[in-house]
Amino acid sequence: MTCMNHHYTDVKESYLFADIRKRIDTWLKKNPGGKVLRLGIGDVTQPLMPSVIQALHEAVEDQTHAETFHGYMPECGDPGLRQAIAKWYQQRDIPVEWEEVFISSGASDELGDILHLFDRSLAAMIPEPAYPAYADANIMDGRKIIYPEIDADHGFMPVPPAEDIQALIYLCSPDNPTGAACTRQCLEQWIEYAGRTGSVILFDAAYESFVQEKNIPRSIYEIEGAKGCAIEISSLSKTAGFTGTRCGYTVIPLSLEREGLSLNKMWVRNRTTKTNGISYILQKGALAVFSEQGQREAAELREVYRRNARNFMQALDEAGLSYTGGKNSPYIWMKCPDDHGSWETFDILLEKGQIVATPGAGFGESGEGWIRFSMFADEEDIREAGRRIIFLRNEKYF
Question: How far apart are the first and last CA of the chain?
Fold first, then answer.
């Protein structure tokens, strides 16, 4: 008799970041006191904004007095925060109601939890290269995974497959790791495909705040028909530096139904059963992000990473290297020069330039031959990394 979920044994060992750490440790042992420039992990480096810190302090103080103390919060999120997020959408002419907004502990958690809404027989469609957790969560759930075509020659824009397949479709825009941002035409194709096949799109919008081009949608709900086929999952991690603070939000339209079931009502039932809500303190901090002052401060915070991207792209251009991303994304996806492999390029960067990046092969087989740089780094480290890459290129190390 089987009592365990043996699908966990189908998940590959998490060798990517373990292997990266091992190679860095080996280099540091050979070079005591040496410094590496870490452009690998997508974690923010700037501290939380002043308005958020003030709100967090106020929330802690609230918890010290009986008349302002808060215990359990509403499982779907504080109505005030849900209303603020809905208003933020509405100010951009995106039709989202507050009852459609759910507060989460972050996009990563929600992307895994949301699978409870769907039968395990429903396949997952994951355009690769992709965030590895997409595939791993579905493998653990025992799902079949389909990998549709992504054309590197067209900026890694995902294209619906020719065959009609009902599936749970993962779209990330701007994308991690490639930095590609879906155009309106791209999203229209996927929405039409999802509507025709009865599929549901999971739209990962964790990096939407980095979009700068006006013709690039920041929300899938900017496209007609999306509310009938898409769930949008977002986060304050990269928008406002909440990677260690943990708060995000999910939008499930009231009109989204499959087989006569409302996905919004199902998620209300799920949250009221499986969670006790996000803490009052964190939600108070998150609410500050959506104030006028919070939005100004968040924009200033993101400008640090945008400036990093501009400086790094300038260095890659000078070195004559090909890449995508950077303009609408905090990630730069570089083509490995001279037909080098991802890990070979990683080793050259580490050994010769003391730069740490993430090999593209770790994001799926189609990522081989590419390497990802994160712009979530110290500004001077980014500038120095750019200078070193120009040097490595001039000295023909790659």
Answer: 55
